[in-house]
Automatic annotation (TrEMBL), chains A, B:
One GO MF term attached to the UniProt entry: transcription cis-regulatory region binding
Protein name stated in the entry: LacI family DNA-binding transcriptional regulator
Organism taxonomic ancestry: Bacteria, Pseudomonadati, Pseudomonadota, Alphaproteobacteria, Hyphomicrobiales
Pfam families (alphabetical): LacI (PF00356), Peripla_BP_4 (PF13407)
Domain called HTH lacI-type: residue spans: 3-57
Length: 341, 341
DNA sequence: CTGAAAGCGCTTACAG
DNA sequence: CTGAAAGCGCTTACAG
């Protein structure tokens, strides 16, 4: 049988209250008593039963998710996943708040973070934008002891405790590898459509893409990045201009959102299916484009998995317990027409 | 606040013991009392706190995993994942037993299932082999009320309650799609290496592969399936004979195990990197082959995820509670050299 | 057929 | 600085 607080109390010759004080590092216990109890704890190999502790405490984990607002379908999917998670709140003992902030707006994100009531917060998960202001806000929360988790786009070096998302450099490399192989021996130009070079996930995908293109597919010329702000209309206009301007575009890597605009631009010129396209995020539009042969492949990250993982991670950080690492690794999902779920 | 058994007891004017009897459908309660209590339960929207119930019951879930023995690296990885899960037993309240049986041996699998002590069993997860004997054994367990989960290879129509694994037809289609595109406009023959046409996962992968090959890549000729019994030596010999016999083999789909033998056969003939290979399961050998350019792509299912999912599913079935569907969908992972984890 | 009381493993006022 | 007792939400003998 697993040892309990009763076993510790008996063996150490103290009361349950004292055992609890030592277990939870609360003050007001004589140093030598602490020592004695700790020795018993170690000798018994005691491990707290978290479920029982949470029952006794009526523990609830107040969590906050901060997600960019706007038309980006992936972000809306992320929002849906947060709402799903809220429905499980009573079972999971969570109390989840969802905040949306204007996209690509460092100030707005920092402001939202600064406005959080830190009191009792068990964790904050945010889709990060790179900026000193955001870093400062994250540092402030971290100083207050709130576990911070970055979601989808990381903010390394910052005081975040964990990143929940795919390896974006690897994703970019994978996109290049697929595109290059699909285009085997078909020289020409490859365009890159991004949202903004201000968010780290986009920057990293582009980096990985360029690495592999330069190293392995030298007969393909990569054009300068187009920044469509993850908006369908902007993407449509800019991609359209590019297609009208350039000859010999054989491939496109769409590493951000705005795929609806990209698809329109291709169709308007009868180029759907003629140009190999690798895109990100399996939204409804992307799914349709795969089925129609407009997209050759879609690289995806599972928003549901990400939200569940973020919640598990924040709770574990708040409780100081271990994670099952493999369970928290977010996969680079690759979808072709043939493995659509 | 969420209503508790105390609220029910008070509102229904009965004791906690009676509430518990009704909640757990135990007999020995007057019909009208049952009715009254049930009405109160419904009116309060009561939901049992499973953690508290398990604490009170000192509930433990006895689970059994049945996995084929032998050299198949993927199965050994599955076994490792089960051992990992055992390490979490005290936290997850599980008591996990691992049984190994000879591979591709219907009789041995049925015998192992029949030998199980059903008493109190919360679930059985098995890598299924297709056969009437296995179906009978599964039915017997199901009749005894034991939740059965198939793992990796399904046994549809049988009395299993859930399948934990990838969609193998889709996996086969995906393999064909990748291979066909990588070989674009390079006509020739494609070989298929399987373990055995007795296990459903292999049959289904082949089916999906053929579907796409016939429909989309008509300049590729698919050779008859080679059955290597998932053994490296057998695979090496049979693939070697095939390579020596056939001209113009441009691609190979390895849909089972025995990849070590396949790699040796290719290398012995200096064909590594010359023939496009799509294989299954990211074992150490497959990983190395990807890195070396011997394999173009590897389709994988995450053994850790499968074992964790099987455990969650069996516990949920035993308790009669709902699952988070998205969490239990096993992905078809596609690995290229560029997204190796 | 029904209920009072104790208990699962932990925490929390409160009293001393 | 320490402990006795009650309580978290549920279940389980035991008695009637």
């Amino acid at each position: 049988m697993r040892p309990t607080v009763h076993d510790i109390a008996e063996k150490a010759g103290v009361s349950l209250a004292t055992v609890d004080r030592v277990l939870n590092r609360r003050k007001g216990v004589r140093a030598e008593t602490v020592l004695r109890v700790e020795q018993v704890i170690a000798s018994l190999g005691y491990q707290r039963d978290l479920a029982a502790a949470n029952l006794a405490k009526s523990r609830v984990y107040p969590l906050v998710f901060v997600v960019p607002e706007g038309e980006n379908s992936f972000m809306r999917g992320l929002e849906m996943a947060v709402h799903e998670a809220r429905r499980r709140s009573s079972v999971e003992r969570t109390d989840i708040r969802l905040l949306t902030v204007p996209p690509f707006d460092e100030g707005a994100l920092a402001y939202a973070l600064d406005g959080l009531n830190i009191e009792g917060l068990a964790g904050v998960a945010l889709v990060a934008t790179e900026s000193p202001a955001v870093r400062r806000s994250v540092a402030r929360l971290a100083d207050a002891g709130v576990p911070i988790v970055t979601l989808v786009s990381d903010l390394p070096s910052a005081r975040r405790r964990h990143y929940v998302g795919i390896d974006n450099v690897a994703a970019g490399r994978t996109a290049a590898s697929l595109l290059g192989r699909f285009l085997s021996h078909r020289p020409g130009k490859v365009a890159v459509l991004a949202g903004s070079m201000l968010v780290r996930d986009h920057v990293e995908r582009r980096l990985g893409f360029d690495q592999v293109m330069r190293a392995e597919f030298t007969d393909l010329e990569v054009l300068p990045v187009i920044e469509g702000r993850d908006e369908a209309e902007t993407a449509e206009r800019l991609v359209g201009e590019m297609l009208d301007r350039e000859r010999d575009v054989v491939g496109i890597y769409s590493l951000g959102a705005g795929n609806r605009g990209l698809i329109s631009a291709l169709k308007a010129r009868g180029l759907n299916g003629k140009i190999e396209v690798v895109a990100h995020e399996l939204t409804d539009h992307a799914r349709q484009a795969l089925a129609d042969g407009v997209f050759a492949a879609v690289i995806n990250q599972d928003a549901g998995h990400e939200v569940r993982s973020a919640i598990r991670v924040m709770k574990a950080l708040a409780d100081g317990v271990d994670l099952v690492d493999g369970q928290e690794r977010i996969r680079i999902d690759i979808f072709l027409r043939d493995n659509l779920p």
